[in-house]
Specification:
With about 300 residues, the protein is an alpha/beta fold. It is about 40% helix and about 20% strand. Strand 1 (about 1-10), helix 1 (about 15-25) and strand 2 form a beta-alpha-beta unit. The longest helix is centred in the last third of the chain and has 19 residues, at about 240-255.
Length: about 300
């Protein structure tokens, strides 16, 4: 089995080099091919990376294509080079050899598994997006908004965000974190890769829908734990990233939940209203020094 690794970069800074170094070390026991796809970064991340790893291929897109299209560029390169497994990793992911081996082992053990994810660790512990059930409309409305922090939503959180400690390694789940996800190449090809109708966000839920419709399982590898600093690139666009989420969510709800136009318009209006504090903070950050905004809550 040949492993293909795609790291999608956009203004990630020096963490890109750190991430790729960890992936190269972690994959040294496998026949592998690694490619960095750059979405028209304007920082020094690509130059710094090339200085450290001149032998690794970098594909430079002429513009920022977003998550789905950017990763599909890397996937086509890896599939053309005969890769049987495709690992997509954010440039702020650090993974060890044992974790990567566990991820691959978990996927290969189940013949109808289309993809597999591990447990991303951040400063607060295991990300709650590590493994999830398919959200109902109520869960989608509440848990992907500031309402998720209310005590009364705790039952919804427990139902949607699965506790990894309660799952066996290789348990089937609906969706996993897209920070680092391993696909069987045959499954990725069958579903047509990542859905390019979205620019950023909701990729995990959309891929999960497409995999399930094609008869593939999504697994969680509880033995694979890796570090993910989260939103390292998207922090550069605090205002736009919320707009991207709203657009992607609208596509998900229209395509897979079959919401009608009136319901989508009301949903979108609510999302913009709840985002006013975030929009305001992003606007003020352009003109006011960071310390002066320390007390401004999102």
């Amino acid at each position: 089995m040949k492993l293909g690794i795609c790291v999608l970069n956009w203004n990630a800074g020096p963490v890109l080099t750190e991430s790729v170094e960890s992936l190269l070390d972690a994959s040294r026991l496998f026949v592998s091919d690694l490619v960095v796809v750059d979405n028209d970064s304007r920082d020094a991340s690509v130059a710094q990376f090339r200085e450290r790893f001149p032998e690794v291929q970098v594909i430079e897109n002429p513009s920022n294509l977003g998550y789905a299209r950017g990763n599909n560029v890397g996937a086509r390169h890896l599939l053309d080079h005969g890769c049987d497994l495709l690992l997509f990793a954010n440039p702020d992911v650090i993974v060890g050899e044992a974790a990567l081996s566990a991820l691959i082992r978990t996927l290969e053990a189940v013949l109808d598994a289309g993809c597999c994810g591990g447990l991303p660790i951040n400063s607060k512990g295991i990300s709650r997006a590590a493994c999830r059930t398919k959200p109902s409309l109520l869960e989608k409305f509440v848990l992907y908004s500031p309402l998720s922090y209310l005590p009364m939503t705790r039952p919804l959180r427990r139902r949607h965000y699965l506790e990894p400690d309660s799952l066996d390694d290789g348990s089937p789940v609906f969706a996993i974190s897209g920070a680092m996800v391993l696909f069987r190449a045959a499954a990725f090809h069958q579903i047509g890769g990542f859905d390019e109708a979205t620019f950023l966000y909701e990729e995990e839920l959309i891929a999960a829908e497409r995999l399930a419709a094609a008869g593939w399982k999504t697994l969680i590898s509880t033995s694979c734990r890796y570090f993910h600093s989260e939103a390292h690139s998207s922090r550069h666009m605090p205002y736009r990233r919320r707009l991207h989420f709203i657009h992607s969510e609208q596509y998900l709800l229209r395509r897979y939940y079959r919401l009608n136009t009136a319901a989508l318009l009301l949903w979108r209006l609510y999302r913009h209203l709840e985002s006013i504090p975030a929009y305001t903070k992003a606007f003020l950050q352009r003109f006011i020094p960071g310390p002066a905004l320390a007390g401004f809550k999102r």
